[in-house]
Amino acid sequence: MAGDDGEAVRNKQVIFRDYVSGFPKETDMEVRESAMKLRLPEGFNGILVKNLYLSCDPYMRNRMKKLDVPSYRDSFQPGSVSKPK
Q1: Which phi and psi angles does 48 have, rounded to 5°?
Q2: Domain map of the chain by residue range?
Q3: Of residues 40 and 1, more confidently modeled
Q4: Among the four residues 6, 35, 52, 80, which has the most C-beta atoms within 10 Å?
């Protein structure tokens, strides 16, 4: 739909505040809410998916740590949204 601005919806993000040591706690996270438009970029052939639940698997715990040695995958950056590369 060219020219369609999309439906305005609320967007919640779970952001971690600082690097975590040990098990993550609720206080290590922050929930931010904003508004966004649901629309696909021009010429994009895909679908939009709405997540109803967030699940953090054990792999993510290692990405929340500040790494002392290089790794194949960087740590999450505190206070920012992680985007795939």
Answers
A1: -100, 140
A2: 7-63
A3: 40
A4: 6
